[in-house]
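Tokens in:
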């Protein structure tokens, strides 16, 4: 796949998906509003190694049940890391969510690992000083969906910036330059995804003192603001990379 494949010269966003229940959600509307053609690839059933790392203008890596360190169990994760490293070397735009953030940390030389306890529910993320000047600032004071048991350490790279933390996990968002942005929380969650997750994984909620009914009530309370914050976060990031030369053009001229 090449960025040149986009209809009428539109920029292409390649979405790496790991589970049909963990999709693009409300991020899709923002991408389409910025003129992106969305190409979704199901990583578990696609030969990711055959994809051109620079074949799209933007790569979005979504969440999943897999752990970023389980490359022996899920070989396609190793292929994703190789693809991401190819983009990182070219400073080509990447946006990661949850597992996507963990895979990016691994791709950059950091380490993903199993956390002490899952972080589940509508929870606050606190922007760092740097985060307060980044797209992540839109989630200040806006609870976001968390549903993960893994975390990651960032490598000692002066180009990397931690943008947000939570009470349980230090690394909730990070960036490299204006082209790489990753979040551990889930800005993409819309009503459909929320219900899918409650159906698929709701039985584990009592372990965390939660219930499906409670999360539905919190969704009703916080969902509209989270949807707005999601659109602002991704929209600001996309506006920031809009002035960059298209990836395919940069590759062809090199």
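Residues out:
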């Amino acid at each position: 796949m090449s960025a040149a494949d986009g209809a009428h010269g539109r920029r292409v966003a390649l979405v790496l998906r790991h589970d049909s229940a963990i999709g693009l959600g409300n991020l899709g509307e923002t991408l389409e509003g910025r003129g992106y053609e969305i190409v979704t690839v199901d990583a578990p059933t696609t030969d990711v190694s055959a994809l051109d790392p620079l074949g799209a203008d933007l790569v979005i890596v979504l969440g999943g049940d897999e752990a970023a360190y389980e490359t022996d169990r899920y070989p396609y994760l190793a292929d994703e890391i190789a693809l991401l490293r190819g983009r990182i070397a070219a400073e080509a735009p990447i946006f990661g969510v949850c597992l996507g953030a963990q895979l990016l940390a691994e791709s950059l030389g950091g380490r993903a690992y199993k956390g002490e306890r899952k972080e589940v529910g509508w929870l606050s993320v606190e922007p760092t000083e740097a985060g307060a000047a980044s797209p992540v600032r839109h989630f200040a004071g806006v609870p976001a969906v968390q549903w993960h048991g893994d975390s990651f350490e960032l490598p000692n790279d002066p180009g990397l910036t931690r943008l947000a933390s939570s009470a349980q996990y230090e690394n909730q968002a990070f960036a490299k330059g204006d082209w790489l942005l990753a979040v551990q929380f889930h800005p993409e969650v819309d009503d459909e995804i929320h219900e899918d997750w409650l159906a698929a994984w709701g039985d584990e909620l009592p372990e965390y003192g939660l219930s499906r009914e409670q999360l539905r009530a919190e969704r009703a309370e916080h969902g509209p603001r989270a949807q707005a914050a999601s659109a602002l976060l991704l929209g600001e990031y996309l506006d920031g990379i809009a002035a960059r030369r298209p990836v395919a053009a940069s590759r062809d001229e090199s």
